[in-house]
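Progress against Task 2.4 (sequence-to-structure conversion) is shown through the following example record, which the project officer requested during the mid-term review.
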Amino acid sequence: MYKIAICDDEELQSTLLEKMIDTYMINQGLEVDIDIYSSGESLLRGIRNQEIVYQMIFLDIEMDGINGIETAKFIRESDQQVLLNYITSFDDYTLQSFEVSPFRYLLKPVKENEIRILLDAAVDKISSDNQYLFVKVNRTQYQVRCDQIIRITSEKGRKLRITMCNNQEDIVYYARLKDIIANLGSSIFVQVNYGTIINLNYIERIEDTIVHLTNGDQEVISRGKKKKFVECYRNFIERSLGI
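Structure tokens generated for the chain above:
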């Protein structure tokens, strides 16, 4: 399910935009949950207090209180992945607005064909960037942000357990480890032993063949996976340092 936020102090504009997004998603057969906020302050409270993670946010630039640009700066402090879309009445994009890497700009009044074009590009980007892992638990489909996955472990060969960051509840579902490896970003996920894949971003330290993760868990690097792991981790460090 896609989580989308609309932040605009004009209620009519928010309602129309919500309807257009909802119509697009229904036509594409995609599930969506849209939250509406009337100020930057209320959006930030929703994100911080409820630990909500959005894939897309539509921000009005001109709002009372903190404007859309300042709101976006606060959001970027903790989330570099969300697609930020500015809504404005003026065809004047200040240099400040580019600091937060906006995805698109929309001029008011927003037109349905413009929303369709934007959402086509957004859905394609989310898919191509491989930011999400789609899992099904019973009859419920979950869209899990890959950058919040610490590790994925196999349980008795029939179930997988996804360990999430920020004390989020584990997700357990029926699947095999080998079936999801291709769906994960190979640049940050690596298999360390027969039953475990870890996210390299959550490594705290490595002692010989023991990987210590930031949540306190440990994993053993098997002999057969060690060479590949060392190579992947070295490449990861070099990319992180810009080497």
